[in-house]
Amino acid sequence: MTDSQDLREEARHQDQDELMQHLKEVQQVLSRHKLVESLVHRQDMPRHELVEGLVHKQHLVELQKKLDELHPADIAYILEALPLDERLLVWDLVKADRDGEILLEVSDAVRESLIETMAPAELVAAAEQLDADELADLAPDLPSEVIDDVFRSLDSEEREQLRAAMSYPEGSVGALMDFDLVSVREDVTLEVVLRYLRRFEELPDQTDQLFVVDRDEQLRGVLPLDVLLVNDPEIEVAALMQTDALSLQPEDDADHAAQAFERYDLVSAPVVDGQGRLVGRVTVNAVLDHIRDEAEADQLAQAGLKEEEDIFASVWDSVKNRWQWLAINLVTAFIASRVIGAFEGSIEKLVALAALMPIVAGIGGNSGNQTITMIVRAIALGQVGTDSERRLYRKEAAVAVVNGLIWGGLLGLIAWWLYDDFRLGAVMTAAMTLNLLVAAAVGVAIPMTLQRLGRDPAMGSSVMITAVTDSGGFFIFLGLATLFLL
Amino acid sequence: MTDSQDLREEARHQDQDELMQHLKEVQQVLSRHKLVESLVHRQDMPRHELVEGLVHKQHLVELQKKLDELHPADIAYILEALPLDERLLVWDLVKADRDGEILLEVSDAVRESLIETMAPAELVAAAEQLDADELADLAPDLPSEVIDDVFRSLDSEEREQLRAAMSYPEGSVGALMDFDLVSVREDVTLEVVLRYLRRFEELPDQTDQLFVVDRDEQLRGVLPLDVLLVNDPEIEVAALMQTDALSLQPEDDADHAAQAFERYDLVSAPVVDGQGRLVGRVTVNAVLDHIRDEAEADQLAQAGLKEEEDIFASVWDSVKNRWQWLAINLVTAFIASRVIGAFEGSIEKLVALAALMPIVAGIGGNSGNQTITMIVRAIALGQVGTDSERRLYRKEAAVAVVNGLIWGGLLGLIAWWLYDDFRLGAVMTAAMTLNLLVAAAVGVAIPMTLQRLGRDPAMGSSVMITAVTDSGGFFIFLGLATLFLL
User: Fold this and answer.
1) What is the CA radius of gyration of chain A?
2) Of A302, B81, B187, B431, whose CB count within 10 A is highest?
3) Closest approach of chain A CAs to the CA of B148, in angstroms?
4) ipTM surpassing 0.90, yes or no?
């Protein structure tokens, strides 16, 4: 029976407005503090040093008192909202025994900025406050000598857990798993279980069920706390435990686990190894973090950012975070530019083409992105089988033709009116419709192909579709114009 | 003391692979069923009617048996993955007493397609199975006469709850709230609470704490189940209840509540009215659904889709879902086109401009989207105050200058080499740098302004930034070229 548990001091929960208020107060103290410093420095007189020291201290004591009252997650929030110099000042004031928890809560970028300033001994102390699964989350950001030191300080069970937790790849259930669980035997009565629980100081966070295992740690079922509470204490666990609840394996896809939590409104789920032995559990708060991270990663990738960015990062860090996709975009834009270059002769003869061509390309890109978003969502929900693929191509093609005729037709009329050239309008309509068809076909094909190759169907698909509809749109429009107008 | 609770039959939890397998089996039965139908119809002989009837029945019985074993969420999943005709066939086979729960689980688009086929009496029966908060979620999709009928069938407490639940706007805590909670008094011992709980058949889903209220329903604190379980039954509730836990108000922003659930790893939180009376609770599964919906809405809005789309929706429904943003995009593309039109004389003289201008516009758009994504995220996390705004402008401008010099410089060299014109290269570099500065300024200004106007800072910002960087890029590049090259 595992009885690992954290004994964390409870701090008051803040609602968003209160939290903002705390942030503002911290900022005020910091700016008063800075003002005093700058005043004293400007006058640069030795007799002020004493005063500075006193005021300085007073501000910092005030700040420290405030920080001590806050939940680690709230301190993390405040650290993220502060520029680097103020952030490090606040970080120094945080009690050392809370460092570990706070490092867990901040974003990767901010965590890096904090870890950089800490001595190895401080890092070891911070890491030692954490559970194995938390340590595994932090480990990639820690220097290897710190990890080694921490590792040596663990007992053999914890070492085994840490080794296991670090071995699971990101995106697997193993990476979400923790080891804080309470397990019981099936041949005891509820009364015995209740007495057993009273020996705990508290139960692990988000304990909504106990796990029923046999002597070989094989998972036999789960006993929800509410079942334990509403039933007669004389009944045996075996008679009440649920055997049909979801159990996960460490290798399972974390996304699938998250979907199961949503489908079945779970708070926790047991994780068993290949031999059916209970090795850990996944809780809904790990799932919530996972969902938030995934949604964020998608948004960042779509905009061409490598990772979340500390808004107070240095200019150079920001440039590094953003250059890759700008470079890719530059290459695709260059290719599109060369497509236009090939038709320079046509543009010279009919300069209206230069003004109209970005419309054809732009609408194609927008429409292709709509298709991709819809398909990516359907793939994520597992709704796209091989049967439906052909159907999807047909439908998207039909939507493209309708849109091409409506919007392309409208633009054709406008082009006709602007340049007083009926044939130019007709070419415009035809080019729009064709480019929308290209966008539809490629919009279905890209995520489906990525999916088949085992890649994330959303990854980079927006850049790819825009590349195709830009170059394709220019080629179709200028090509048709060259064929029919010149 | 409220003791409302659902007595739902528990179905086996499926992992993702099992669920896919079920879907495949359903699809196989459906296609066998269709094959028989089409064979019989083709031969069109009356003596086959009997056989058809038998085979038909056999398939449907098989299907029904399979469906009965599945969890409502899993049936919803299967319904979403089926084309309309098959979806309705399966829907007919689902036991009527599960209709309500399944309607809650399917997406809005699919729900519409199901409700359309149901008679008012069926809808009333389905709605009557639901709790007030669930009913409030379903209500907007139901015909008003159905709502009226259901309303008449409720007792006065439920009516009050339904009226309250329907009165809260989407995006408020009230809209996430449910009324399934267990409350206790502070002046009783844990023993009394334990005896009281044994009178329940089961506790409401996701009950991790009991709510402590006084005679006027004023919330006094919360009693987590683990506190109840680990402590001596002789102790009074008042001595153990937590008074510093988060409590929400129905008018609070649902996003803020969701962030609090993430920060503090909550499973449930009490909701109190302005007078401090307990009116309901929010559970983590409502929060999970909210976060998923929000992330999805963001992605859809970014791609220019009005709402999630049933992938088997008709072509016409799809066109309607997508037209608005295409139209906006058309207008912005048209404006950009007219900017180019104003410089047709310049392009006629130097046709290379036509080939190079999309690069300037495209890179600007990409870079602006990166800035916006970062700012929107920072705003969502509440990290952007007025102090940091100036700092952000400065930093983004610096990033723009660095990128402009690096990438603009590179492109300038390429343009120089391609067209053997040094001054063209210099104009290219200058235009890129200026357009990146525009992108940076507007990329910070758009979400900040939307935020100040009380709008969603992400809404439509991608379309706006692209409009600015397209028209701006064309104007800057062609304008500089006209001034310096011609």
Assistant:
1) 30
2) B431
3) 30
4) no
